[in-house]
Amino acid sequence: MTRDYSDFFPPQAATIRPPSPIKQYGWEPFFAQQISVDDLSATPPARVVEVHRNGLHIIGDEVEITIPPLPDATVGDWVLYDQSRPNACRVLTRKSVVKRRAAGTGRKIQLIAANIDTAFIVTSCNQDFNVARLERYVALAFEAEITPVIVLTKSDLSPMAEPYITQAAEVSSWVPVVAMDARGEEPLAKLAPWCGRGQTVAFIGSSGVGKSTLTNALSGTDSVDTQTIRDDDAKGRHTTTRRQLHRVPSGCLVLDTPGMRELQLTDAASGIEDVFADLVALSSECRFGDCQHDTEPGCAVRAAIEAGAIDASRLARWRKLKAEDAFNSASLAERKSKDKALGKMIRAVQKSSKKRD
Ligand SMILES: Nc1nc2c(ncn2[C@@H]2O[C@H](COP(=O)(O)OP(=O)(O)OP(=O)(O)O)[C@@H](O)[C@H]2O)c(=O)[nH]1
Ligand SMILES: [Zn+2]
């Protein structure tokens, strides 16, 4: 009898080879279940890792190529690469998508990025810290179906980071808060839970809060600023054209697109409801279904404020965010309409946003 000793030997090289490119780029069952085995061999999946003016750079298993732009694809999308008709590649259903409305006529929806798993909402422990802004970004992430994480940088500069952490934690009980000095080793360890292999992350926040510093910390380099590709645009100004996913040593993919940094609140009604879920729940107990929580009798929201259970400023911020969203989401025609209520609300929002940033 021959005995099988194979269990005593180390695994064969073949079984420990690195994951396939698509796994490294975040391929997972959510996408796999959208395609048949036939699709898989005829039109292999590939991820859009970079968008530039004349095409989309895609990477898959044994595929790395630039294809013509597809009207409904953006950075982060998975496409089924059709070699014979590259300009007709199918875009797979997304796990998440960030969009915005273009300025100007038509206010068409523009896709910013797809299939982001985690949005790191970055602010610093100093005068940049602003609860209303955090709520706005968290609402955007919820709306886009992205996991938000609040990152407080410059904890080394503030003798008292604790009050900032407490306030950030009050934004939503669903959103973790991590504080750090973005310049050292801390980011790698503290962001690790969201930065595993194939995870796609993005940094959102105002200028100067440390987004590039954090990106460099994950990359283990200080190359982000210097690597930015800049093109002269028609007006002779320098604008960055880079919209790309880059892989970092931990195996996660960091999205770097200027559009992510300048997000407006648009079409985010349900994201706002999620951030203010406590107020939404209370509203359902108001006597009137359309209660404005103003002077109406039987208002559960005002009762909670009077009882000290919620802060009046939180109600004010909820209203402002809803108004801002309604304004930004309105079509041009709606904006021009003579609807007095909308006009009044728009003026109020414009006035308050001038004060804000
Ligand atoms: N002391 C300290 N400085 C930091 C920290 N994070 C960032 N900085 C510094 O703050 C400055 C701005 O950081 P950036 O990473 O360029 O900020 P950014 O968010 O990428 O800014 P934009 O590119 O303008 O959007 C740099 O000089 C950083 O070194 C931190 O945690 N502690
Ligand atoms: Zn009410």
UniProtKB/TrEMBL annotation:
Cofactor: Zn(2+)
Enzyme Commission number(s): 3.6.1.-
Family that this chain belongs to: Belongs to the TRAFAC class YlqF/YawG GTPase family. RsgA subfamily.
Organism domain of life: Bacteria
Protein name according to UniProt: Small ribosomal subunit biogenesis GTPase RsgA
Span of domain CP-type G: 103-263
Localization in the cell: Cytoplasm
Record-annotated EngC GTPase domain positions: 114-261
Cofactor note: Binds 1 zinc ion per subunit.
UniProt signal peptide: none
Major place of residence: cytoplasm
